[in-house]
Amino acid sequence: MPGLHSSNLEDSWLGPWRHVLLGDCLDCRSLNTVHKKLVQDLKSKCKMDINESYLKLVLGVAKFDIEEACLSQRCLRKGCYTGKLEHLEQENSQSNGIDDVSALASQLIREAVNELHMEDAICREPIILVLDLDVQMLPWESIPILRRQEVYRMPSVGSISIILERSQRYHELACTNSAAFPLIDPLDAFYLLNPSGDLSSTQAEFENWFRDQNFEGKAGTVPTAEELATALKSHDLYLYFGHGSGEQYLSKDEIQGLEKCAATVLMGCSSGSLRLNGCYVPRGVSLSYIQAGSPVTIANLWEVTDKDIDRFGKAVINAWLRERMDLVDCSQCNQLVKEFEAMKIKGRKGNSRKKSASSNLTETANSGSSTNACEHRPTVGSFVGRARESCTLPFLNGASPVCYGVPTGIMRKKDL
């Protein structure tokens, strides 16, 4: 989808509601303060019932799209706020009564925007799209408002809960501290590279690099189904660079029969496309991996050129490996440790709590173990948007990869 077409799709289909797709802002204290005050002002001065969640979204983008986000008249007409204006009709029957309230609301929003102190790059929570079968083939991740957002796809809300519950059970069985989302070590990887033997440039691009990372895998040869099944169960990450989805080497039924499955990267043509079956739920290999327990699967919606998608794949994997190396240095954890160490808390109980909190935070910041994975770090899907830009054709080949699954963190295992 060319950039122009994706922009048209955003404008014509979503309009002012496109901001609903954005994740909540993270660590925006000024936004929370301004939002709370604005809600009170709109209720007291405009006598409106406010959709507070949508208003917060409007403020979150207003600093960078003020002409769009601050048009409260548009928001009013689209039902973003439900105004109770009966008292105005009693006090003033003139036709401009509602317009006056709209103008006042617009002024209050603009004043609130001017009070915001937000960074140029806002960190947002990831979002998960549950798409209808009639629109799931479109690259929603590449519309302008989502291109820098961390986006995942799942077939249903229930499937999201299943993955999270499965991850929780795995942590309990492994006797590790539970995490809100699944965790993987990108260095614990198995690759299947050019099994058909006719993608020589792809094999030349990745084979030595994978070996340098001490990845296990096969290049230029066809593995058995048993080998692939074992690799998917025993590794955190599975990398496939070949034709299609790799279903010719391990069928959907065999994938779905796995009791445990690695996160997967399927860089073949149309590896993430879903087949429509009339009124039945669409099916695809990418969903088979999710059904088998893969926390995240990155795959292509349509056909791609090998060299461009190789650039994307290498950019994503390299970013994960760099993030793994940086796990020992989280600025937020380090700052919290310093704050606890600087506290002067009197009393036995206070000292005990201080020591415990400081110790735990220090372990989180400095430990590379899977049991102390930092929750402030980016997750695997956060690097996909940036990797699209590495493609020569970012709105064609770069728009093809999408993430199925849930936000998945990066950790470092003790034994790797």
Automatic annotation (TrEMBL):
Q: Which InterPro entries match?
A: Peptidase_C50, SEPARIN_core_dom
Question: Is Hydrolase found in the keyword set?
Answer: yes
- Superkingdom per UniProt: Eukaryota
Matches recorded under Pfam families: Separin_C
Under Enzyme Commission nomenclature, its number is: 3.4.22.49
Extract the GO molecular function terms from the UniProt entry.
cysteine-type endopeptidase activity
Q: What's the catalysed reaction?
A: All bonds known to be hydrolyzed by this endopeptidase have arginine in P1 and an acidic residue in P4. P6 is often occupied by an acidic residue or by a hydroxy-amino-acid residue, the phosphorylation of which enhances cleavage
Q: Specify residue ranges for compositional bias: Polar residues.
A: 357-373
Q: Which GO terms describe its biological process?
A: meiotic chromosome separation; proteolysis
User: Region labeled Disordered — which residues?
Assistant: 348-373
Q: Hydrolase: is it a keyword of this entry? A: yes
- In this chain the Peptidase C50 domain maps to 186-280
Keyword annotations? Chromosome partition, Hydrolase
Q: Record's GO cellular component, any one?
A: nucleus
User: What is this protein's name?
Assistant: separase
Q: Which organism is it from?
A: Gossypium australe
Recall the taxonomic lineage recorded for the source organism. Answer: Eukaryota, Viridiplantae, Streptophyta, Embryophyta, Tracheophyta
